[in-house]
Specification:
Layout lengths: L5 H7 L17 E3 L1 H5 L10 E3 L3 H14 L5 H8 L5 E2 L4 E5 L5 E6 L8 E2 L24 E4 L12 H4 L9 H12 L5 E5 L9 H8 L8 E4 L9 H9 L4 E7 L3 H6 L6 H13 L4 E8 L6 H17 L4 E8 L17 H12 L5 E4 L2 H12 L5 H7 L6 H12 L17 H5 L14 E2 L4 H12 L3
């Protein structure tokens, strides 16, 4: 959601916001990270280059390439950068549209430019950790250590899993322990990060190591863990090291919906996680779910409410919090062909009505923000003038809709370069399912799995009764 701030940041630095208007004297503006790796197209006209994949590989190669051509004219520098695997230079690719404005392809402007840019994957023995620990950080005074990258579970909606495949784990002795030791020289707060940290094959050994008396006074927190991997040992050590709660993702209280999204998790495993949390000395359990998933019905939402009520009834004394977000289709995942379901907004309200009176804390994510996420996730370059014009309106769904209507009416200042057709209707981008023959805005960019394999996973999900 930080993307729409980009034009403002560029203006503040007196850099032309459009890459096409920059001269040899302007810096090369580049970006990376999961959002841009999945679908950079809405922001592509603002960037000179986008790095697709893991920085451990990309940054050294990108910097070396820049050094090699630093005295060349801008256009030559960009063409040189485009030869680096995983470096996408948007200005060297042109969208092609049908007469009705339908996107047909995004193609290189000549044969010297790669037709397909592939995400780059780091396969080394170490992962990332904090390099600066400060009270001014988003998580103040915490040393963060990445325990795993990606997730082997492949939930059909999950960008953190599909985009970052394969599942990778650093060595305990050569990666994790040195990273933890280094951080604890600066702080007594340690955060263990990853989409599924407890699935590191040596996680139990890491816990035993952190259970040593010399770590007394160190506070340890973990990101969301897989419910089926919650053990009495895990909760005991987390409680001993200052954690008060544990977070698990259940997605839905409905067994059917969990099968649809490929969440390999039983209701009994969720109850067992709650029991282990209480027995280990934790006081709270946070659960994350979703509303508006493909094929979801009101009965599935009711099953989520019933599960939370049963957990509270069966695990007295444990504080329960349920966070629920609206399903958002993400590029490079099987559910990229689905849309945001408008009925999700009512279903969030229904959950609040069922749970709050029973003493369960309910934290819904804004439906409006989910809609904006979907707009950014599934749009093509024609969204860029909207991003440039939305200004303070980016703080609300109403502001986005108003600016998008202006784009549909041809009222926005166009971006430089060839004339673009008007953007597709709002509902087409945000809400409507897409058929398998549609050209995706990111069709020229390749994630870990080919589109055919993603579609296979999509179709498997929709066959669940």
């Amino acid at each position: 959601m930080d993307g729409p701030v980009l034009p403002e940041l560029l203006r503040n630095q007196r850099i032309p916001i459009w890459a096409a208007e920059r001269s040899d004297d302007d810096p090369i503006v580049f970006g990376g990270g999961p959002v841009l790796t999945a679908n950079p197209e809405p922001l592509a006209p603002f960037f000179d280059a986008v790095l697709l994949g893991d920085g451990e590989l990309l940054l050294p190669a990108f910097i070396d390439a820049l050094q090699q051509c630093r005295h060349s004219p801008r256009n030559e520098r960009l063409r040189h950068l485009a030869q680096v695997p995983g470096v996408y230079v948007p200005s060297l690719y042109a969208p092609r549209y049908d007469t009705d404005g339908t996107l047909i392809a995004v193609e290189p402007i000549d044969s010297a430019i790669p037709a397909l840019v592939e995400k780059q994957t780091w396969r080394g023995n170490t992962l990332s950790h904090s390099t600066v620990v400060t009270p001014e950080a988003a998580w103040p005074d915490i040393h963060m250590v990445e325990v795993v990258r990606s997730c082997p579970e492949l939930c059909r909606f999950c960008l953190a899993s599909y985009l970052t495949l394969p599942f990778r784990t650093p060595s305990l002795d050569d990666g994790l322990i040195p990273a933890v030791e280094k951080g604890l020289t600066a702080t007594k707060r340690l955060g263990l990060l990853g989409a599924s940290v407890t699935q590191h094959p040596q996680f139990s050994d890491l816990l035993q190591w952190l259970d040593q008396d010399r770590f007394d006074g160190t506070r340890i927190s973990v990101s969301s863990v897989r419910a089926a991997t919650v053990t009495p040992e895990l909760t005991r050590i987390l409680s001993k090291r200052g954690s008060r709660s544990l977070t698990i993702a259940i997605e839905s209280g409905s067994e059917r919906m969990r099968e649809v999204v490929n969440k390999k998790l039983t209701t009994e495993a969720i109850h067992a996680a709650a029991r282990h949390a209480k027995e280990g000395g934790l006081t709270g359990l946070k659960l994350y779910g979703m509303a508006g998933l493909p094929t979801e019905t009101d009965d599935d939402i009711e099953a989520t409410a019933e599960l939370l009520l049963a957990l509270k009834r069966d695990t007295k004394g444990l504080r329960f919090t349920l966070g629920v977000s609206t399903f958002v289709p993400k590029a490079q995942t099987p559910f990229q062909w689905q849309g945001v379901r408008p009925e999700a907004e009512k279903r969030l309200k229904r959950l609040a009505k069922r749970l709050k009176p029973k003493g369960i804390e309910f934290r819904p994510e804004s439906y409006g923000w989910s809609v904006i996420q979907a707009l950014l996730s599934r749009s093509d370059r024609r969204l860029a003038p909207v991003i440039a014009a939305v200004g303070d309106g980016r703080e609300s769904m109403g502001g986005w809709k108003k600016t998008y209507r202006a784009a549909l009416n041809g009222e926005l200042k166009p971006m430089p370069g060839p004339t673009q057709p008007l953007p597709p209707p709002w509902a087409d981008v945000v809400h409507d399912p897409w058929d398998s023959q549609r050209t995706l805005p990111w069709t020229h960019l390749r994630g870990p799995l080919a589109p055919q394999k993603l579609r296979e996973h999509h179709d498997q999900a929709l066959t669940v009764d």
